[in-house]
Amino acid sequence: MKGSQPEAAKDAVEFLMEPNIIIGKEKYFKEVKQCGEWLDCSKLCCPYVRFNSGKKKLQTKHNCCCLPCFFDFELAETDEKNNVKDTIGRIKPAGICDQPLMLIFCPCFYVGQRVTTKFAVQKGNDFQDKFHLRGNIEMCQYLWLCLAVCMPCVRTYRFCCSGDTYSTYEQNVYSADIENTNPVAKIKYTDRMICPCVPDERVAIKIEQAEEKGASKLDEKDLMLLSMFPTLISGYTKMEFCFPLSVPGGLMSALPTPTGISQIDGANDITCEAMDPSEALKERTMN
Q1: What is the pTM of this model?
Q2: Fewer CB within a 10 Å sphere, N or C end of the chain?
Q3: Distances in Å between the alpha carbon of 19 and those of 32, 38, 114, 158, 174?
Q4: Would you write out the chain's pLDDT as a tens digit for each of its 287 residues?
């Protein structure tokens, strides 16, 4: 009716179970492959997954799972017929030549950062590194790793006494300049303890702009490129990427994620903070 007010949205209960990625203001849902796609033998060697926002499609593909150590995962935007129209970038493990010279020639005496994972963007017909994940090498950093045997006692205390059943982890993303130690983004993980004797449940992964002064601004394509990381480690793509991720020498060995063991997490440039449910809820509702 002309001049009438639009009808208000009805109250409802919504419980989303399907995997999705939010990039900026766009929400992408994982597409379900049709029967013909599963039976297409020409694509067995190059497994892929697609996420669809209704406006855009993002496709993460491994270029050859028959030789997973020599080919990389690639992210591209596709059209409605699933043809690639814009290659955004690749994610790949770091090589020897990507490390600082001191680490290459005098590894026993080196203390500092090392590159573990590279994010590259397409420049013409080639790919140029843009972001790094790094680890830390310190003297005697694994000396106290034996204290991990006390982890069950610590977890039991947290669960039964302190109430700190949530953990939030932060992992820095750096520029491709190995001399620049200022992060440009942070990967935040939120884990929830179900029981002291079972692994924690990961409830959220978020990548956001670093707050450090002088950090470069991330555009939409940068966020799309970085979105490959949670896509591959979330567990929602195990069926498609089981072999190229898990084979010895595959990419999973170069995708460091929180373990809950401080010595190992510290070596992977990951910090941890324990929270009780009220603190976790406050932080998640604010975001």
Answers
A1: 0.86
A2: N
A3: 11, 19, 32, 30, 27
A4: 455 555 555 678 877 777 889 998 899 999 888 887 777 776 778 889 999 999 999 999 998 877 777 788 999 999 988 889 999 999 999 988 899 989 999 888 899 999 999 999 988 888 999 999 999 988 887 777 777 778 888 888 888 988 889 999 999 999 999 888 899 999 999 999 998 888 899 988 999 988 876 667 888 999 999 999 999 988 888 888 887 887 766 677 788 899 888 888 999 999 999 888 888 877 776 66
Q: Cβ distance 251 to 232 under 8 Å? A: yes
Cα–Cα distance between 148 and 169 in angstroms, integer?
Answer: 18
DSSP, residue by residue, 225-274 = HHTHHHHHHSSTTHHHHHHHHHSTTSGGGG-----S-HHHHHHTTEEEEE
CA distance 190 to 201: 9
Query: Which pair of structure tokens corresponds to residue 3?
Result: 């001049």
> How do strand 201-209 and strand 183-192 relate by DSSP bridges?
antiparallel
Q: How far apart are CA 168 and CA 272, in angstroms?
A: 6
**Tokens standing for residue 63:** 């270029």
